[in-house]
């Protein structure tokens, strides 16, 4: 049985570099990295306070190469190369995000988000997030060319939204002042997964949007992409929002759909109010830490985790976050579900860099957040209607 869909508004930003702009209204906020200039505790705290005050049901965040202290190993090895207001504690910096009650912080991992606010769209989607970028100079969360395949093979095949700090190769990635570009291995991973949205930043001057139609199978010339359409920003030079309208009503619908449109893919605990370890929460659809074999964790107050299933749930503001937790030794979780029956022809790629190109001696200038309207499956309330 397929679930109905409903328009969901996603606000996308990246590369804020300690700026805290006023954000358009929306259901979901996604930040694709480089929140700060160098990741000091004071910078990160300022950004977390801004994020937590923002009025969104879900707030999904990945770090970037400038958020140095969030990469603990890198900071310990190279932190002395930067000036700091005081000695930094990477664990303390990370806790700002991992213990937030409204932020979903992703570091080479996936989560399924169920919007749950009474007046919200009650939609759901699966998101994968990574802070990593190809090695260039000496910054955090970087990988060598030989590490790329393992890194990006961990993107689950059923991801609806992929959030990375680096762009994929050839799409909204053209630098003008140096030879940086996106990652070709990431592009191959996106061709394999074909998410609805790919959201990133990193290369400020490449801010923009492309609709990418995929080749069903790479031909002999290895061209993964059949066609590309560049976006014309309706917010450029006007008071309008920088809107990408992919909704069926009033927009150009996306040639793609979420695997979660099938009711069978919604976890039983959400359909019947049963937690994944067999217990029954006090209220339908609301996970209760410590009940039914679930244990509270230090990650965040209100988080339920099961060692038996490797699943974790948390109530974050107006959303339920549901994770399949990867082992600590893994880069990510190489999940390979059956998605061959899901029609996924195109992906919208979004470079959401807020800060414009850095020009030595010149003034800073800023882009608008990019607003995306997209139809996502409705998980809440549809079961009773279908059964009636």
Explained architecture:
There is one protein chain. This protein is of the alpha/beta class and 388 residues long. It has a single domain (5-111, 123-262, 343-387), classed as Metallo-dependent phosphatases (Purple Acid Phosphatase, chain A, domain 2), CATH 3.60.21. Helix content is 14%, strand content 25%. It has 7 helices and 19 strands. It has helices at 41-53, 72-78, 90-98, 148-152, 184-193, 268-272, 382-387; strands at 5-13, 28-32, 58-62, 103-105, 109-115, 124-130, 133-134, 142-143, 161-164, 197-200, 208-214, 225-230, 242-245, 295-296, 303-306, 311-316, 319-324, 346-351, 370-377. β16 and β17 (319-324) form a beta hairpin. It is globular.
CATH fold type: Purple Acid Phosphatase, chain A, domain 2
| Name of the CATH class | Alpha Beta
Question: How many H/I helical runs?
Answer: 7
Q: C-alpha Rg, in Å?
A: 20 Å
> So what's the oligomer here?
single chain
The count of domains is 1
Strand order of the largest sheet: 12-11-18-10-9-6-5-17-16-15-14
Q: Architecture in CATH?
A: 4-Layer Sandwich
List how many beta strands DSSP finds: 19
- Could you spell the SSE succession in H and E letters? EEHEHHEEEEEHEHEEEEHEEEEEEH
Largest sheet: 11 strands, mixed
Instruction: Determine the fraction of residues in helical runs and give it as a percent range.
Output: 10-25%
Could you report the average pLDDT, rounded to the nearest whole number? 84
Poorly predicted runs are 274-302, 326-339, 382-388
The end-to-end span amounts to: 14 Å
């Amino acid at each position: 049985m397929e679930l109905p869909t409903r328009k969901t508004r996603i606000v996308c930003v990246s590369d804020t570099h300690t700026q805290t702009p006023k954000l358009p209204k929306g259901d979901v906020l996604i930040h694709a990295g480089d929140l700060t200039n160098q990741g000091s505790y004071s910078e990160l705290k300022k950004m977390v306070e801004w994020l937590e005050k923002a009025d969104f049901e879900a707030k999904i965040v990945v770090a970037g190469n400038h958020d140095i202290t969030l990469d603990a190993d890198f900071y310990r090895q190279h932190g002395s190369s930067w000036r700091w207001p005081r000695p930094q504690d990477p664990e303390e910096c990370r806790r700002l995000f991992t213990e937030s009650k409204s932020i979903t912080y992703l570091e080479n991992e996936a989560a399924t988000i169920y919007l749950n606010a009474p007046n919200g769209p009650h939609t759901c989607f699966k998101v994968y997030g990574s802070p990593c970028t190809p090695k260039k100079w000496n910054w955090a969360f970087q990988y060598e060319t030989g590490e790329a395949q393992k890194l990006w093979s961990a993107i689950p095949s059923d991801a609806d939204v992929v959030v990375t700090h680096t762009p994929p190769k050839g799409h909204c990635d053209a630098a003008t002042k140096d030879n940086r570009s996106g990652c070709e291995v990431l592009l191959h991973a996106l061709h394999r997964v074909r998410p609805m949205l790919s959201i990133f930043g990193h290369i400020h001057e490449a801010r923009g949007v492309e609709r990418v139609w995929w080749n069903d199978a790479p031909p002999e010339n290895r061209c993964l992409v059949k066609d590309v359409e560049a976006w014309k920003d309706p917010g450029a030079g006007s008071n309008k929002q920088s809107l990408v309208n992919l909704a069926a009503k009033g927009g150009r619908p996306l040639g793609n759909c979420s695997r979660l449109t099938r009711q069978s893919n919604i976890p039983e605990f959400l359909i019947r109010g049963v937690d994944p370890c067999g217990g029954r929460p006090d209220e339908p659809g609301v996970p209760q830490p410590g009940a039914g074999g679930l244990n509270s964790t230090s990650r965040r107050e209100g988080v339920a985790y099961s060692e038996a299933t490797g699943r974790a749930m948390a109530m974050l503001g107006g959303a339920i976050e549901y994770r399949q937790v990867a082992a600590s030794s893994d880069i990510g979780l190489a999940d390979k579900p059956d998605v061959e029956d899901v029609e996924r022809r195109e992906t919208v790629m979004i470079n959401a860099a807020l800060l414009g190109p850095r020009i030595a001696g010149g003034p800073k200038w800023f882009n608008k957040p990019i607003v995306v309207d997209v139809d996502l499956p409705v998980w809440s309330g549809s079961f009773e209607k279908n059964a009636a």
